[in-house]
Hints:
Distance between the termini: 58 Å
Helix content: 25-40%
Number of helices: 13
Strand order of the largest sheet: 2-1-5-4-3
Bound molecules: adenosine-5'-diphosphate
Oligomer: single chain
Shape: elongated
Strand content: 25-35%
Amino acid sequence: MQMSSGMAWISDSTGERIWFNESWLTFRGCSIDRERNSGWTLGVHVTFRDRLLEVITAAVATKSSYCVRYSVLQNDGTYKEISEQAVPLLTNSGDLVGHAGTCLVLSTEKASDPSSALFACEDSWREGIWCIDMNGNTTFVNSALARMLLCTREEMFGISFLAYMDEEQRPDAMKHLAARIAGSYVTHEFQFKKKNGETLWAVVTPIPLLNSESAVIGFKATVIDISDRVKTEERLREEDLRKNQFISMLAHELRNPLAPIRNAARIIRLQPGLSDDVIQAREIIERETHKMSRYLDDLLDIARISSGRMELKLELTDLTICIQRAIESVSNDLTAHSHILDVSGCEKPLYLRIDPIRIEQVLINLLSNSIKYSRFHGCIRIAMESDAEWVCVEVRDSGIGIAPDFMPHLFDMYARAQQPSSRDVAGSGVGLPLARKLIELHGGSIEARSAGLGHGSAFTFRLPIQLGEAG
Ligand code: ADP
């Protein structure tokens, strides 16, 4: 986009242009006598002429400013696209003396075919264009914008942009206008109201409209209709809610039979003189029901957190005891995989206001993953460090590691890495998102690091030492 060197004109109170500056005359290659009154309109491309004259007539009638785009013939016989801004000239008593206009040449390409590129101007954009003056009154809209609101361009002209929204949106809209007047131009999402009462969801990107002295005389916004996207998001949210309700119902139903199965295994355990086969079978039942009830509990917790029903039972707790309990919970698995466990930084008690069951659950999830995703005889390290404000617990393993492309999805619900070494291990993809949510509920954060596949992984969570009033 190139700026012309200050093309300008002045019109009288009827809208007739009575003066053009040298830049305009040079650009057009015409004398002032030829241009005066309606002469200049002969240079306006026929596609734009009627609309332009309507805009001018309306601006004269409402004594308002306007901003339009049109194509006009240059002295070399080609049409150029022009952006024109005009402000009303008023007497002290508010009578219209005329308008003063400035123009920018927007395209410098020569186009031999006037029906092609030259006319691909804002009026034919799919995005809406909405220009308002400093009071918020519409000075220009393109056809796309008018279509979005089910209005005609003519009926929108001179009307405040506030008229195209519900009452409750107006304070927000006024705030945006005030921000623009203060020089802040931020893209934002907004709800407008269509003529038929439906909502138009839009992304609005404002820029200032300047006169030849670079003073702001209004604002121009590109308006993109995102109603379909918003509706799709709403539908997805509803589907997600239904899916979570279904999963939580399923987890409940699946958990119920586990208690009698575990009881049955306990009764078998009490029988004297069992053969090795039966003992082995009983151990399998105990181990697998234990794992299954953990998965189901995780699923139920996720559903609780998603619906805001998770409540932490905060109490002053020695974090080293939580670590110790988590280790005890996974000790059978550790031994079964012949992993070595190294614990550091847990020599002295460290008291925090936390929900011990939940923090233990996080530790169990991280430790179980380290055990699952390490080959036999792996090395797992738990390290605790603290300063005045935070305590960090790291669970590091020498296992299969995490591919860089999976890293961004690691904490997503139901996400599981696709490489065979990971896929072959049973899992639900719920442990890490749950761990993150539980840590966040405690005001902390969790992150993962890995130098890539085959290079092990490290998960670190941080908890604030002062949990203060929480809970
Ligand atoms: P699950 O282990 O039940 O699949 P998680 O949410 O705990 O679910 O973990 C998600 C995925 O992250 C796992 O499927 C695995 O691909 C990867 N992952 C988690 N922990 C580790 C780890 N310590 N080493 C390698 N990959 C891991």
